[in-house]
Amino acid sequence: MKKIFVLAIAFFAVVSMQAQNDAISKFYHQYESDTSFSVVYVSPKMFKMVSKVAGEEFESEMGDFVKDLRGLKVLSTKKGGAALYKDAMRRIPTSTYDELVKVRDGAQNVRILSKGDEAGNLVDELLILVGEKQDFTLVSFVGRIDLNKLSKLAKKIDIKGAEHLENIGN
Amino acid sequence: MSFRNILMLSGIVFLLASCQPNHVGALFSEVKKNDNYMGVTVPKWMIRTVDKKFITKHAGAEEAMKAIQSIQGLRAVVNMDKTKIDINKIKSIMSKLSNSKRYDEMLKFRADGNDIHVFVREKRERVKQIIFVTELKKEYAILELKTDINVKDLDLGKIVKNVEDEVAKD
Asked: In a 3-state reduction of DSSP, which class is residue B94?
């Protein structure tokens, strides 16, 4: 009986994790073919390949960070940002994430959410949502993400709201 | 096994092989459907004639040569007027390509009206085929590289470092 209970909980955890990932994927897939959106997708296989070909000289801050990534999705537009942000917040189960940063500055809303072992500064997933009156950006990183490394790279990432990443490391 | 049986088996194998859909070929055919295109095919022997001495003056020549020599063939097509192409048909072929087990969509990038997709076919850790599908503001281009290289043999760090050094020199 105990085993069944443990198995049921494990199954439920796996299914709910899948559902959260699916929510981001569904949101991304809904808008990726819309030409008013800028889109970036880097597959897990691509990151795997990069980590294989990365030699010693790739040990720059950016290289070191990229090597541990397993997926990247970026969706951004300059049209209907506020409505899209609202839609994203409604569809993505944000309560299952740890909130790293929340900013509301006039019309700008920024949420940086993570999942994983935050205590060790290593997380498995990082989600950045930026919504303004017109602009909207969603960035999803998957992999072993070192928040310290990411905070140092914040200035090099050319994404609206990325400047808030500077505050997430210790 | 009699000769007749061998012949029959070979026939079946040939039929099965030819039944496999050639999505890359379909992409090229679609882009070549009207007259505004320019196509080029470079065979392996011609690529082999690229002599090391042409590029040794640049840093990273060794790595570049390794990459060039791994190219077994190249073909490209550029359609100068994308309005005459059935983009939806191309998108449907691309979706079949990314859903097929043989190919992986490694990268997708869309910004400022430019759309780039990179597909890769791997076999036993060796990259066999790389396909770039590029939609620009007016043109549509496809580049296919037939290769035979293990990504581990390429030192990306060295290449990046050399390029950085060259840029710094300029």
From this structure: helix
